[in-house]
Every structure is written in structure tokens, then in C-alpha cells.
């Protein structure tokens, strides 16, 4: 998916690398430090409730983002930048978790 998005992004006249970077940084922060802190500080039941709330917020934001993309006629640009940036951000957070973060904060140590 990231490869296909990267190919389509390169075909644009002005490649929106700053938009890709914004998605990558946002994803890396949400998947990385925010998740590690929540895993360390909150009990499991409370984390489960927060995941439901975050999922509901994401589902409510999706139509707004799709609507803005359709209004400004650049929906594929946002989708490609979001896909590539999110996958890159997730990969960076996973790499940092494996190399730097203490074992007690790992998501897979359970």
C-alpha cells in the first residue's frame, strides 16, 4: 500500500512531502510515546475504554476528511499522503520501540 501511494505521489507536479511528513509524525507520536505512556500509566480496563473513544473519534473524523477532500478536489492526494505517511510513522515507532524503549513498555511483551 505504501509503495502504491508513493508511486502515485511522485506523479503529482509538486510532491507534497510536507503532508506526508505531517501524517508520519502524527502516526509515530500516537503509536509510539502516547501508547507507551498509556500502557505504563493506565490499567487495562481504562485503556480498553479509551480505545473505544479513540475509535469513535476516528470514525467521526473520517467523513469530514473525505468531505474536505471532495470539496477541494484533492481527495486522492490526501489519501495517498495519509497512507504513505501513516505506514512510515508506524514503522518508525515500531523500530524505536524495538531498539530503545524498555521491555516493560512494549506492546508485545504480554
TrEMBL record:
Membrane spanning stretches: 20-38, 50-71, 77-96
Keywords carried by this UniProt record: Membrane, Transmembrane, Transmembrane helix
Claim: Transmembrane helix is one of the keywords in the record: yes
Record's protein name: Uncharacterized protein
Species of the source: Halostagnicola larsenii XH-48
Amino acid at each position: 500500500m505504501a509503495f502504491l501511494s508513493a508511486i502515485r505521489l511522485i506523479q503529482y507536479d509538486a510532491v507534497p512531502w510536507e503532508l506526508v511528513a505531517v501524517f508520519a509524525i502524527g502516526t509515530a507520536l500516537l503509536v509510539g510515546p502516547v501508547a507507551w505512556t498509556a500502557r505504563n500509566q493506565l490499567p487495562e480496563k481504562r485503556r480498553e475504554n479509551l480505545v473505544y473513544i479513540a475509535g469513535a473519534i476516528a470514525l467521526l473524523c473520517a467523513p469530514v476528511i473525505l468531505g474536505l477532500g471532495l470539496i477541494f478536489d484533492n481527495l486522492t492526494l490526501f489519501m495517498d499522503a495519509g497512507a504513505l505517511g501513516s505506514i512510515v510513522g508506524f514503522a518508525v515507532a515500531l523500530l524505536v520501540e524495538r531498539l530503545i524503549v524498555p521491555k516493560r513498555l512494549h506492546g508485545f511483551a504480554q
